[in-house]
Predict the 3D structure of the following.
Amino acid sequence: MKVAVMGAGAVGCYYGAMLARAGHEVVLVGRPAHVEAVRANGLRLETKAFDERVRLDASTRADAVQGAGLVLFCVKSTDTESAAAEIGPHLAPDALVLTLQNGVDNDARVRSVLPSSDVAAAVVYVATEMAGPGHVKHHGRGELVIAPSRSSEQVAQLLAAAGVPTEISGNVRGSLWAKLVLNCAYNALSAIARRPYGELVKGQGVAEAIRDVVAECLAVATADGVAIPGDTGAAVRAIAESMPSQYSSTAQDLARGRASEIDHLNGFVVRRGEALGVPTPANRMLWVLVKLLESKPREAGA
């Protein structure tokens, strides 16, 4: 099967490379410097188990998705509608657009742009980072939970055969919210403190701050009628244990001078809380601080 990765950042590159290693035709759609590096030398996939150059195609153009049976939609949440509109004219009629993004409403936002396409949400549990153009590092995990769709069974088998554990769930909304809670707990704090998860949780008062953030998220989810599966408290604690060296995607964005997805993480919880009458002061403070860090400071006296 041809697979296209729309938004070839760390997440998209990892899953694209795993599928290419399994023999699938894969094309990455990304930034020029990254595309040039992949075309010249392949994609370097560095994991704890292996470090190798994976040969696959790369392009800066959205029409590269043409002919793909599976499109891994991995753009930033801020770019969801615009990227969906770009690929729309080039999608195969039977293609599955699988959203591998932070946030809980990206699949609905893609459907609003591509109403006749097969779109399914995926919950992503992987620790990755871009170490430079054409080089992705994998720090841990890698499993996916995907929503039912016309092609989900076939895609789940394809991914599993490529070394990506994949589960189909009828409560992906709840699983997306569970992931949102983890992101709200760690992403902003990791970015503000510029520390990886394992070091972050050792800070004075951090455990209590995370507890407050999580409690607000759960209150908003309950008010929104969302059933979050599993033990949220245990899942939050496990992140620092299973990914101790991982910096959050928000921290990585700020380090590179890029806008983050904070509006779709803590900012989303703040907006839903306002709509549902649930106070979210801890999430609001984290959202505000990251937004301040994103903006360039003015010169003194300006």
Remarks:
- Residues 2-170 form a domain with the Rossmann fold fold (CATH 3.40.50.720).
- The chain has twelve helices and ten strands.
- The longest strand covers residues 118-132.
